Amino acid sequence: MRACLGLVIGGCMWGWAPAWAQQSEVRPSVVEPPKFEPAPVEAKPAPVSETAPVEETEAAPLTPPSTPPAAVESPGAPAEEAPAAEKKTAKQPIIPSPPPEARPPRHAHAADTPSAEFAPPMVSAPARPWAPPPGPGISIQGGGGVVDFARAQMQVLTRTGGYWDARLVVGTRRVFAIETAYIGSAHPMMATELSNNATLIGNGAEGLMRVNLPLYVDHAFITPFVIAGLGWMHYAVNGADVMGETMANSDDVAVVPVGGGLSIGQGHLFFEARFAYRFTYFNDLLGQVSPREDNLRNWTLGANVGYVF
């Protein structure tokens, strides 16, 4: 019984195995390819020309293939339709685009571009400050004023008189300057033994050392100064013969002038005011009446005008 069942089962297995093998060879297992969805393609319109209008064609809808792309054929549309459309598009004439507008560089500013409306401002060079002319400054000046004796003995014999002078100054623009001058004077006489027309005339010269303090304001200048020096003066009685022992006819004396003043000018012209006091030595004009050597001391106050180079 067991032997019979074994034979039956063995025969069945032998008869079924070839059929299963044949079926596996005929029907291989099919592996479906992965599905992909193509990206939507935007149709770009071809450039339109006025000479050759382009016919608009509708693009066929794209369907994802159920089989690999190589084995899929789109139904109802020939495979060469797409290349034909590309050929039509390639035949269209190419029209060059107009050149871009010229634009200024990015770093350029609107104010840097010259135009009629926005013209760049004209900047003038700064004015140079005024400076005095070069050189020490040489001035020629002249003037006059009042003069009077300082001692009572001469004040009794004479009245207040006047003086005149001419001066040359070297160094008006420097701190230290040298000054030379001619000076003359006239005093009316009041002595009883002399005539009414008698006059005491003086003529002399002097050399001075001058210390300046020049101050400039634009084209104007102000210069205060002090002076001191040595000089000589000759006095003589004019218009009458001296009688008796009251006065001598003439006398020569040594003078030591000291004083100061102020110069104010514009450009080359200037005005100067000065005061001077003169000490006198070796005078004997009064003779035996008053033998003192300081009887002829005097002071002057006056003004000058001049031109400085």
Low-confidence stretches: 20-26, 49-54, 76-80
Q: Major beta sheet, specifics? A: 8 strands, antiparallel, barrel
The largest beta-sheet arranges its strands as 1-2-3-4-6-7-8-9
Structural class: mainly beta
Evaluate the radius of gyration. 65 Å
Mean pLDDT level: 75
Number of helices: 3
| N to C succession of SSEs | HHEHEEEEEEEE
Roughly how much helix do the residues carry, as a percent range? 10-25%
Descriptive report:
It is built from three helices and nine strands, in the order ααβαββββββββ. It has helices at 2-26, 81-90, 152-157, and strands spanning 138-149, 161-170, 176-188, 199-212, 215-217, 220-238, 250-266, 269-281, 298-308. An eight-stranded antiparallel β-barrel has the order 1-2-3-4-6-7-8-9. Helix content is 13%, strand content 36%. It is rod-shaped. It is mainly β.
